[in-house]
Specification:
This protein has 502 residues and is mainly alpha-helical. Among the domains are: 243-355, no CATH class; 406-501. Helix content is 65%, strand content 5%. The protein has helices at residues 14-30, 40-53, 72-84, 88-112, 119-130, 133-139, 145-165, 168-182, 189-200, 207-236, 250-264, 271-294, 296-299, 302-323, 331-346, 349-355, 358-393, 401-404, 407-414, 430-437, 450-458, 478-484; strands at 425-427, 442-443, 463-467, 487-493, 496-501. The chain has a 5-stranded mixed sheet, covered by helices on one side. A hairpin with a 2-residue loop joins strand 4 (487-493) and strand 5. Helix 1 packs antiparallel against helix 4 (88-112). The longest helix is centred in the C-terminal third of the chain and has 36 residues, at 358-393. It is globular and about 80 Å long. The chain starts with 13 loop residues before the first helix and ends with a strand.
Length: 502
């Protein structure tokens, strides 16, 4: 296959550069009111980065070793904090803007390498990526996906180059990118499986050489992940944190999965439709994989690798959710699927239009433009609704006005010096207590682990900070705690309370 040169050069990507600049500006607009968004996971990344800067190691807001998340993203924040001398919350809007801009620019470069290149197609797809509500949500919060999504694109580029050139150099680059992706999110393991499959089932190499390359790729790409989980197990006895077993059937999982594309299309979530959409997503990736595999000119190009990567991510998420109880699928969890799905649905359009008759060319072009306009209109409607909220109240999370201005938050922040440092603080939102006060706070144990719940009840002296609006059904309820633990009310508020045990 003849590969276009300089796919990522600025001279060939002025449209991508404009889209990247627009992406940077969008993140700054979303962050204008109250800064970058902060969720419970964000607090873990933030606390770990702060502790590493202070030389305390990879520990969380609980002052315990982090094992729910791998180390790469907090370490990335640590390096930036070290050189800038700024807290991650201060530079996060600029960082996320740069990462979103980079995602758009790299996406444009990838589309330059499609078999059927078209400038108008590329610019329409760049707009779809720029205005994606799923991606805008990701890049307006302090989340590891901001880095993970970019690493997936770099993996697509590097493994595509390996499949075309069959050199050890590109094999090693692909494995290193994959290793860092696994160290950014545990879900990055799907890239190990994707890469190993692409290497092993590549008929351009003899079987013996394929096996050697697959062994090299698999060993190197999974090395950092294995080091991380061995470290976790040695320190905490858990490989990847406490993860309750799944108790949901496959149809319900497919319903939750398909509910996310429903949200992207602004369609009401209906069980049958959501299950159907899950099947359609898998079908789209499967067809794209089969079609690009059949054509040698595109069989080892970006389109082929994109289809395989998207399919593997969907199957990986569906399969692992049958083993471990995830939170319900959200745009955040399925954001790595968005761009591969968009490309797998549409990569063939420019080629089809170019080969049709003059009359069909007009009909096909107008049809595609109408579909693109419909989809962009849906995205812009969702974007406006999101912006209408964040411009007045901030990005949803712990920096949003309703949370910051709540009585329980203001009380805890004002009276943080009153907590006895010798008494541990427990909460149904320990990360919120840390974010408000900077004090270490323990999460209440999950009800799925009765021994840990009983262990908590047996601790003689503890504080309990209870957030009514952050009630987690996976944890014991307030009434259950009060029945099993002798607690004294220190302060009752309309949206929470503070207790101490006798």
């Amino acid at each position: 296959m003849k590969v276009k040169s300089r796919l990522f050069s600025i001279s060939g990507n002025m449209d991508s550069l404009i889209a990247a600049a627009a992406g940077f500006v969008l993140v700054q607009i979303f962050s204008k009111h109250s800064g970058i968004g902060v969720s419970p996971d964000s607090v873990t990344y933030l606390s770990a980065a702060r502790h590493m800067v202070e030389g305390k190691g990879f520990i969380s807001f609980e002052n315990l070793p982090v094992n729910d998340f791998p180390i790469a993203y907090p370490f990335f924040l640590t390096i930036l904090s070290f050189f800038t001398r700024l807290d991650p919350l201060q530079f996060a809007p600029v960082l996320n803007g740069i990462l979103f801009g980079s995602l758009l620019y790299v996406s444009g470069g990838i589309m330059n390498g499609f078999r059927f290149y078209s400038g108008w197609y590329k610019r329409i797809l760049l707009c779809c990526i720029l205005f994606s509500p799923a991606l805008q949500e990701v890049y307006s919060l302090l989340w590891s996906e901001t880095l993970f999504l970019l690493l997936i694109l770099l993996f697509i580029i590097s493994i595509s180059n390996y499949l075309r050139q069959l050199t050890v150099r590109w094999l090693l680059i692909s494995a290193l990118v994959c290793a860092f992706a696994c160290l950014t999110r545990y879900a990055g393991v799907f890239l190990v499986l994707t890469g190993a499959g692409l290497v092993m089932f590549n008929p351009e190499l003899p079987m013996r050489r394929r096996m050697i390359h697959c062994l090299i790729f698999g060993s190197l790409s999974s090395s950092l992940f294995l080091v991380n989980i061995i470290r976790n197990y040695m320190l905490t006895g858990l490989a990847m944190g406490m993860r309750p077993k799944n108790d949901t059937g496959i149809l319900k999982i497919m319903e939750y999965f398909g509910g996310v594309p429903s949200d992207w299309l602004l369609i009401d979530r209906r069980p049958a439709l959501a299950v159907l959409l899950t099947g359609l997503v898998l079908l789209v990736f499967s067809l794209a994989f089969l079609v690009t595999r059949r054509h040698k000119k595109s069989g080892y190009g970006f389109e082929y690798v994109i289809a395989v990567t998207g399919w593997m991510y969907c199957v990986f998420m569906l399969f692992t959710s049958t083993l471990t109880r995830y939170e319900q699928f959200t745009s955040r969890l399925l954001s790595p699927m968005f761009m591969p799905l968009l490309w797998s649905l549409s990569w063939w359009v420019p080629g089809y239009i170019s080969k049709t008759t003059y009359r069909l060319k007009w009909v096909s072009s107008i049809s595609f433009l109408l579909i693109a306009a419909w989809f962009l209109n849906i995205q812009l409607a969702a974007d406006y609704e999101y912006y209408d909220g964040v411009k007045d109240a901030g990005v949803p999370g712990y920096r949003e006005d309703p949370f910051v201005q709540s009585e329980i938050v203001q009380y805890v922040e004002k009276n943080k010096s009153g907590f006895d440092r010798g008494i541990p603080i427990y909460s149904n939102a320990g990360e919120a207590v840390y974010f408000i006060t900077g004090l270490a706070a323990r999460q209440l144990p999950f009800s799925a682990f009765p021994s840990r719940v009983q262990q908590y009840y047996s601790i003689p002296k503890t504080y309990l900070v209870w957030f009514r609006d952050l009630d987690n059904p996976e944890m014991p309820g307030l009434q259950e705690i009060l029945q099993n633990k002798n607690m004294v009310l220190l302060k009752q508020l309309s949206d929470g309370a503070v207790y101490v045990s006798k």
